[in-house]
């Protein structure tokens, strides 16, 4: 009988990964290349973005492993793909590319301008990059200061195998439509927020780094639609002692709209689940906060806040399906559905 050594097994695994097409370890044909550790290609992601023509052509940027400092602002007209080197596109934990910056909104001039990645274009795809705003560290100066990792505007934008790391206001859905597949989003305060954006989060991890609020969805009126659907996500805490201390959301504006379905809440969520904006300005009368088919000790229980609701399968998988929520799904990478 032939027994494979560990090294042979690892080599075999590498071959299988490549054979399955799960890795992207070479620049796709025609891609603009970024490599902080080489003199060929660009050393900065922003320089590569700035080199792209501002026309309607489709463009791809491939980024080799490394730590990249500064902000990236994407405004071009055509579809752009940002692909980080990866041996497994579906595994955010295996990412080798970090984009990091430290900037608080009060110094940047606005929430959006503080974001490490700012997307203003339509039809963007971002793969396998960890995106960090390192300003907020909890406690001290970072405790109550907006410092965004992502500001997302534009239509049909997909974030796949991406990590988003900050403390307050990590992911901002400023406007447009977006899909987050196999992502990791970390923060403490209002760490997924926005008034106008519509976003669907699938098969992702929401990691709370202190007591706080996962969402601060801020739909302002019933005259327009905006909101979040979380489907098959896993809630975790990454700091000891915050179990059962996290709220699913608080209402940035009166018509806050958030759905959690088919998800694992573990021990993360407070019994009440959801809370007011502030004591003086509760803003809970017209919220739509729904839960369906979640599991874990902190899923739905008799102590849920009176302004939360449970919904049935027809609504959860009909109205709040991907197409029901985003209006279309042909643009979503089917590997992340
Ligand atoms: C939490 O505490 C346990 C036991 O002291 C420790 O092993 C673990 O690393 C801690 N986790 C974090 C995220 O600090
Ligand atoms: C939000 O709702 C509260 C209470 O119903 C109301 O007093 C307030 O004017 C509303 N805010 C807006 C911006 O409509």
Quick overview of this protein structure:
This protein has 337 residues and is α/β, with parallel strands linked by helices. The protein is 12% helix and 30% strand.
Give the arrangement of secondary structure elements.
Layout: H1 6-19, E1 32-34, H2 45-51, E2 59-63, E3 66-69, E4 72-74, E5 80-84, E6 97-101, H3 105-108, H4 111-114, E7 117-119, E8 125-127, E9 130-133, E10 150-152, E11 157-160, E12 163-165, E13 171-173, E14 177-181, E15 184-187, E16 192-194, E17 198-202, E18 205-208, E19 212-217, E20 227-231, E21 234-237, E22 246-249, E23 257-261, E24 288-292, E25 308-310, H5 313-319, H6 322-326
Parallel strand pairs: 1-2, 2-5, 3-6, 4-7, 5-8, 6-9, 7-10, 8-11, 9-12, 10-13, 11-14, 12-15, 13-16, 14-17, 15-18, 16-19, 17-20, 18-21, 19-22, 20-23, 23-24, 24-25
The structure holds 2-acetamido-2-deoxy-beta-D-glucopyranose (2 copies).
Q: How would you characterize the overall build of this protein?
A:
This protein is α/β, with parallel strands linked by helices and 337 residues long. It has one domain: Pectate Lyase C-like. It is built from six helices and 25 strands. The strands form three sheets. The chain has an eleven-stranded parallel sheet with strand order 1-2-5-8-11-14-17-20-23-24-25. A seven-stranded parallel sheet has the order 3-6-9-12-15-18-21, with no helix packed on it. Strands 4-7-10-13-16-19-22 form a seven-stranded parallel sheet. Helix 2 links the parallel strand 1 (32-34) and strand 2. The protein is globular and about 60 Å long. It starts with 5 loop residues before the first helix and ends in an 11-residue tail after the last helix. Residues 9-19 have low confidence and may be disordered. The chain binds 2-acetamido-2-deoxy-beta-D-glucopyranose (2 copies). One 2-acetamido-2-deoxy-beta-D-glucopyranose binds next to loops.
